[in-house]
Specification:
Elements (H helix, E strand, L loop, with lengths): L7 H9 L15 H10 L11 E4 L7 E4 L4 E2 L18 E7 L4 E5 L16 E5 L2 E5 L7 E8 L14 E10 L5 E9 L13 E8 L2 E7 L5 E6 L7 E7 L9 H7 L12 E3 L6 E10 L4 E11 L23 H10 L1 H16 L5 H9 L3 H4 L1 E3 L6 E5 L2 E2 L2 H14 L1 H11 L11 H4 L3 H9 L7 H7 L6 H6 L2 E3 L2 E3 L11 E7 L2 E10 L2 E11 L4 E3 L2 E3 L7 E9 L11 E5 L2 E2 L2 E6 L3 E12 L4 E6 L1
Parallel strand pairs: 22-28
Antiparallel strand pairs: 1-2, 2-3, 4-5, 4-10, 6-7, 7-8, 8-9, 9-17, 10-16, 11-12, 11-15, 12-13, 13-17, 14-16, 18-19, 19-20, 21-22, 23-24, 24-25, 25-33, 26-27, 28-32, 29-30, 29-33, 31-32
Helix pairs in contact: 2-11, 8-9, 8-12
């Protein structure tokens, strides 16, 4: 992905001036390597830079990028990183409105698409991977419109994080006290075989099923690109058509601009249109009436399925999406629509855990957006979830892959297990030095970050983003071995507390650490446990239920001591005092051993006071 920032220094300065960052002059980061990763590769939360975007697509499925100006571009759904489709004039969203006095039609973008009318003002863009939200302000428009796009990314759920497709939802509201007509349209360009110059592609409308309507491009072999839409009401009019024109204006636009529809009605119509690889688009439109002040959503899904890999330098065993997981683009598109609410909620869950922390806003942003290479730099194998990590045009070296594997350990341990097995590695082989934290030099970490180092080569930038998520366990000093958890927070001198999530293989937790003059308080709340699925070939083994977390001891920081006085620890669980005994350890640490091992379930919280 060739995304570049126009002014990365200005973006960083704007974010650090936010209220969330007030009073924090030093930020703790695990290493110089990670410091550079945040600035060089993180996506901004909001930006006017038109080159900033969000890649849409699942792990190993390729991606289509939606950008801050409303364009869809940089397509690599075939895994052909050598020749992604940088520009696609036929891939865009459009809106039509009609009131008693006025009829309007516009492309929801701020840069040119053919010679069609564009939005009056540039959209407001918010990116939090894998979500993109674009709002189109126009006081003269009777309808407020927001366009949201995302592809599911759900930790521990490899299957639902690997959809070869994405969702686009029009959110419309009638801002007047009169009924009006609206039509939302999505124009999708033919993407099949474009990078390889293949012909023989046809467009076929798909009969309605389960309240979904749409059509698909069908290429050679079993390759297909499917678009589905789910009108919010039964009285909505769905129409679709495809065009071979490469003229400045699509043939269907004049009818859409007048009536909010296109020429071919889609319900039950099995019309086949033969097109060439240069065909620009098919278009799908939903027209309906809005009551005064009514708000609706019109979701579209786009999905693909490819018959063979595009890269000749990769074994034929590897294709972007395993056929046995998603055998049909049509089924994938329908499932995305039918399950969109649950997929959205599960994707938002891990993001909200980071957003509810007291970390600086720029760091929250970097953590959330650090997973973008899963959509842009990974090809999945057919037999197992083994990953081929790409770095630009080349397969990543083991050194380049290590940061990616570090994050998979916490969020997708199934993928990590198959990776380690394939490379004959162990988890211990992935350890990365955390010298800046171990030497208690957060000020140095901050200075390296502010210097905006650009010395790292292009080959290191893409995959290094995935290692940013390792900042969280580094800040917590977190380790989990057998029945013991280590929590030794390392806070910069200006930080008064740390409240942040803990993502670990097998469970999610939340911690709250507050240092005091003569000790500290620390709480550890277990939020979720996971039954980790490990796959062997085409067979899988899944525990029947998520296990409890058994805890015999904690390794904690040693509180300040007066003379040789021993440390005192008070511990409570479910409002009941716990019996513990304390053992001093080297490096200013202590081990707190519970008299009786704890069997924690989701919702349990251990509260500790150290004096």
């Amino acid at each position: 992905m060739n995304t570049k920032f126009q002014s990365i220094n200005e973006l960083f300065k704007d974010r650090t001036k936010s209220k969330r960052c007030a009073g924090r002059n030093s930020h703790q980061i695990s290493s110089f390597y990670l410091c550079c990763s945040i600035l060089l590769c993180g996506l901004p939360l909001t930006s006017d830079a038109q080159t900033v975007g969000v890649p849409l697509g699942g792990i190993g499925a390729g991606s289509v990028q939606i950008e801050a100006d409303g364009r869809f571009r940089v397509v690599a759904i075939s895994g052909a990183e050598r020749a992604p489709l940088e520009e696609m004039s036929g891939f865009f969203a459009a809106l039509w409105t009609r009131t008693a006095l006025r009829t309007t039609a516009e492309v929801l973008a701020s840069t040119g698409v053919f010679d069609l009318p564009l939005s009056v003002s540039a959209p407001t863009f918010k990116a939090r991977f894998p979500f993109a939200l674009l709002s189109y302000p126009d006081p003269a428009r009777p309808v407020s419109v927001t366009l949201s796009a995302f592809s599911p990314l759900i930790p521990y759920d490899v299957r639902n994080s690997s959809f070869p497709g994405f969702l686009i939802t029009f959110q419309l509201k009638n801002e007047t006290n009169e009924p009006i007509e609206v039509s939302a349209a999505l124009s999708v360009e033919n993407l099949l075989g474009r990078s390889r110059g293949e012909g023989g592609v046809v467009f076929v409308s798909v009969p309605a099923a389960e309240g979904n309507f749409g059509g698909r491009f069908v290429g050679t072999g079993k390759s297909e690109l499917v678009v589905q839409v789910q009108p919010p009401r039964g009285d909505a009019l769905f129409t679709q058509t495809a065009t071979n024109t490469a003229n400045k204006s699509p043939q269907w636009w004049s009818e859409f601009a007048k009536e909010g529809r296109v020429s071919v009605e889609g319900q039950g119509n099995a019309k086949t249109i033969r097109i060439t690889p240069e065909a620009r688009s098919s278009v799908f439109a939903v027209r309906l009436n809005l009551k005064p002040r009514e708000r609706i959503e019109i979701p579209f899904s786009v999905a693909w399925n490819l018959s063979r890999p595009a890269r000749k330098d990769i074994s034929e065993a590897f294709v972007p999406t395993p056929a046995e997981i998603f055998p049909s683009a049509l089924l994938s598109a329908r499932e995305l629509l039918n399950q969109r609410l649950s997929l959205t909620a599960l994707t938002e869950e891990w993001q909200s855990r980071i957003s509810n922390s007291n970390l600086p806003l720029w760091l929250e942003e970097a953590l959330i957006n650090s997973l973008t290479p899963l959509n842009t730099s990974v090809i999945r194998g057919t037999e197992t979830p083994y990953l081929v990590l790409m770095n630009g045009e080349q397969i990543a070296t083991p050194a380049q892959s290590r940061p990616a594997l570090l994050s998979l350990d916490a969020l997708f341990p199934t993928l990590l297990s198959t990776q380690l097995e394939g490379q004959n590695l162990r988890r211990n082989d992935l350890s990365e030095p955390l010298s800046l934290l171990e030497n208690d030099k957060p000020d140095l970490a901050l200075s390296l970050l502010e210097r905006n180092e650009t010395s790292r080569s292009t080959e290191d930038k893409t995959l290094s983003r995935l290692s940013v998520l390792q900042i969280l366990p580094a800040l917590w000093g977190f380790q989990h071995q057998q029945n013991e958890i280590t929590l030794t927070p390392r806070l910069p001198g200006t930080w008064r507390s740390l409240r942040a999530p803990i993502f670990a293989p097998g469970f999610w937790a939340y911690g709250d650490f507050v240092p005091r003059a003569r000790g500290y308080s620390l709480s550890f709340r277990l939020d979720r446990t996971f039954a980790v699925q490990f796959e062997e070939g085409k067979k899988s083994k899944r525990p029947s239920a998520a296990p409890d977390l058994t805890l015999s001891s904690l390794v904690l920081p040693s509180p300040p001591r007066v003379g040789n006085a021993p440390s005192t620890i008070y511990a409570r669980l479910r409002q009941s005092a716990l019996g513990v005994h304390v053992t001093p350890l080297p490096d200013n640490k202590i081990r707190v051993t519970f008299d009786t091992p704890l069997h924690l379930v989701a919702g349990d919280r251990i509260d500790l006071e150290a004096k």
